[in-house]
Amino acid sequence: MSDSPIFPLIFGTSALGKEGTTFSHFHTLEEVQAIADLFASRGGSAFDTSNAYGNGTSQEYLAKVDLKGLPVDTKIAPHFPGAHAPEALRKAVQDAANALAPHKIRILYLHYPDRSVPYEDTLREIDALHKEGYFEQFGLSNYYSWEVAEMYTISKLKGWVLPTVYQGRYNAMERITEEELFPCLRRFGIAFYAYSPLAGGLLSGKWNKPEDMDNINMVAGTRFDTITGNTVFQKLLYNSYKNVIPSFAALTQALDAAKIPPAEAALRWIQHHSALKPGDAVIIGASKMVQIENNLKYSALGPLPENIVQLIDKASQSFKQYVTGYCLR
C-alpha cells in the first residue's frame, strides 16, 4: 500500500443534500461533518460541489461544517437557456458564494455549456467576477474540445482569466477523452480532474448482468434509477452501460480469482495505468460511509497485475460503440 494516491483526491458532494433531492444520500450535518473529518484525515485535497447538487442544498451543507481547511470548488449549471448570460451568471455566482460562506470558492466551473449565450459574453462576465474576488481559478466541465479551444483563445486574446482546470468523465472503461480532449487540454496547459472513476457505479460490481439494471430494488437511489434519476444520466449512462455488462465476464472472473473488488481495480487503474499527468486529480464520491472508506483505501494501493490491466483494456474497447461522447449535453 502506498502512503497516498499518486493523483490527489477530491470529494464530490453530489450525494449531499436535503432529503428528497436527486441523488442525495447524506441529509444531516452530522453525516456531512463525519465525511469532512474522514476525508481530511486521510489526505483528501478538496471538496467539489455544484449549484445543481441536492437542488442547491449541497453547498449549504458544506457551509455549515468544518472542512478542516480544505478548499471548495463549485460549478454553475445552466438550469435554463440564458443561465450563462452576464446578469444571470453573476446572480448564480453570487448565490453560490453566499451559500458556501464562510468558505471561499477555489475553482469556479461552468458545469456544462449554455450554448444559447455567446461564449464571449459569458467569459467577459467570468473575468469581471474573478477580478472582484469571487473565486481563485476558472474551470470548464463537460465541454467539447473545440469549445475548450475556442473559449481559451477568446480569453487569451482579451486578456481575461484563463480556464486552468477541466472536470470530465473518465474511467477505465470510458476513455474517449484520451483521443480528443486530452491533447487539447495538454496543448493549453489545462489540468484534468476526472469524475466518475467508477463509471457512475457500473464498476462497483453491483450489476453483473444487463437485467440487473431493470431490477427496481437494485437501482433504487442510484444514477440508473428511472424514477428518481436525472434524465441526462438516463440517456448517457443507463442506455449505454446496460449493453456493455456482458463484456465484463472475463474481467470479472479474473478479478474474482485475484480477490480484487471491481471498485478497487477501477481506482487502482486510474491512479497507475491511466493517461493522467502531474497536476491532474481524481474526484471520488459515495452514497455510504463505508464506500468513502473503501475508495480512500483503494486509491492508495499499488499498480494492478498486468493480466488485469490487459483485460480492462480489452473490455474498454466494447464501450466505444455504445459510449461515443464525453459531455453531458
From TrEMBL:
<dbReference type="InterPro" id="IPR023210">
    <property type="entry name" value="NADP_OxRdtase_dom"/>
</dbReference>
<protein>
    <submittedName>
        <fullName>Aldo/keto reductase</fullName>
    </submittedName>
</protein>
<keyword id="KW-0560">Oxidoreductase</keyword>
<dbReference type="InterPro" id="IPR050523">
    <property type="entry name" value="AKR_Detox_Biosynth"/>
</dbReference>
<dbReference type="InterPro" id="IPR036812">
    <property type="entry name" value="NAD(P)_OxRdtase_dom_sf"/>
</dbReference>
<dbReference type="GO" id="GO:0016491">
    <property type="term" value="F:oxidoreductase activity"/>
</dbReference>
<feature type="domain" description="NADP-dependent oxidoreductase">
    <location>
        <begin position="8"/>
        <end position="315"/>
    </location>
</feature>
<dbReference type="Pfam" id="PF00248">
    <property type="entry name" value="Aldo_ket_red"/>
</dbReference>
